[in-house]
Amino acid sequence: MGSNSSVVTRKGQITIPADIRKELNIKEGDRMIFVRQNGSVQMLTPEEIVRRTSGSLRLPEGRQLLSIEEEKEAVAQAIADEVAEGMTGRRP
Q1: CA angle 52–45–86, rounded 5-degree value
Q2: Which of 17, 14, 19, 9 shows the shortest CA–CA distance to 34?
Q3: pLDDT per residue over 18-41, tens digit each?
Q4: Which residues of the chain have pLDDT under 70?
Q5: Of the residues 24, 53, 60, 84, which has the fewest C-beta atoms closer than 10 A?
Q6: Could you tell me if residue 85 is left (phi over 0), alpha (psi between -120 and 50 degrees) or otherwise beta?
Q7: DSSP for residue 19
Q8: Is residue 43 within 8 Å of residue 32, measured between CB atoms?
Q9: Is 48 inside any structural domain?
Q10: Domain contains 10
Q11: Total count of domains within the chain
Q12: Residue 7's pLDDT is what?
């Protein structure tokens, strides 16, 4: 495990060192998730959350696992439906 450091700006921003961005395939515009645990913070990509939790729930009989792309599409649709419901007061 290597060590890197970064300075926090006035706006609370930090720069993720280039070697870490490359290793984790983090690109401009990617969303990161911060998880507090035992006095430390982990920074995870949504893909890592999906990978870590994949298979943790039993599927109903006859259902198949979704690919990461299918899961992303389903989440995006659920968010869009929720926003639409908030705007119109009903489900699309």
Answers
A1: 100
A2: 14
A3: 999 998 889 998 888 888 889 998
A4: 1, 55, 88-92
A5: 60
A6: alpha
A7: H
A8: yes
A9: yes
A10: no
A11: 1
A12: 94
Asked if 68 and 49 count as a contact pair (C-beta separation under 8 A), the reply is no
Residues forming a β-bridge with 34: 43
User: In the prediction, which pLDDT does 16 show?
Assistant: 93
Q: Is the dihedral of CA 86, 76, 24, 15 positive or negative?
A: negative
Of 64, 82, 79, which is closest to residue 31 (Cα–Cα)?
79
Tell me, yes or no, whether 9 lies in a domain: no
Which pLDDT value is given to residue 22?
92
Which H or E run contains 34?
strand 33-37
Spatial distance between the Cα atoms of 26 and 41, rounded to a whole number of angstroms? 18
Please tell me the predicted confidence (pLDDT) of residue 1. 60
Half-sphere exposure of 57 (CA within 13 A, CB side): 9
pLDDT of residue 38: 92
